[in-house]
Specification:
The chain contains 3 helices and 7 strands, in the order H-E-E-E-E-E-E-E-H-H. It has about 180 residues and is of the alpha+beta class. A hairpin with a 2-residue loop joins strand 4 and strand 5. The chain is globular.
């Protein structure tokens, strides 16, 4: 939180090169070490429109992939307050915390994979939340930017206490401890 790359729109990937493939491999490694269910390139200091995702629940096989230059379409948001038990999320850019946030229940995402092949993903529930969360990172939006005023004030207090919210603040998943 606070690093300029996290707060500005990312640039499209012009060409899938070996450097892009290495970046994506590093992103998967970082995401898994965190552990997280998604990671956008801006979260590792690279202002490109790429994100990785991974999720497994009790009913389905593992769901894992990468999207390059994604486009996102959402079903209309259901009005109301988010349920803290079912609609809370966290973020590797604001680690160790979770806040309730209303998201669209269903999305369609298109883009390309590492081979340059077209990808089309229609998902709902938690997977839709992951797609929206990671897509926001590509537009320079952290989920804490979307919180209501009360939670926003709590976020600001936590950020000040931990010395976050300014360029250069970082943590390494699996290496650095997060103060609760």
């Amino acid at each position: 939180m606070g690093d300029p790359v996290l707060h500005a729109p990312a640039s499209p990937v012009a060409e899938i090169t070996d450097d892009i493939r290495t970046l994506v491999a590093d992103m998967f490694e970082t995401m898994d070490a965190a552990p997280g269910v998604g990671l956008a390139a801006p979260q590792v200091g690279v202002a490109l429109r790429i994100y990785t995702y991974a999720y497994t629940d009790d009913d389905d096989a593992p769901w894992r992939g990468v999207l390059i230059n994604p486009e996102l379409w959402m079903h209309p948001l259901i009005p109301g307050e988010p349920d803290p038990d079912d609609e809370s999320e966290g973020c590797l850019s604001f680690p160790g915390e979770r806040f309730p946030l209303r998201r669209s229940e269903r999305v369609l995402v298109t883009g390309t994979d590492l081979d340059g092949s077209a990808v089309r993903i229609e998902v709902d529930g938690w997977r839709a939340r992951i797609m929206q969360h990671e897509f926001d990172h590509l537009d320079g939006i952290l989920y804490v930017d979307r919180l209501d005023d009360g939670d926003w004030k709590t976020v600001q207090k936590i950020a000040r206490k931990r010395g976050w919210g300014k360029p250069g603040s970082s943590w390494m998943p699996g290496v650095d401890d997060i103060e609760a």
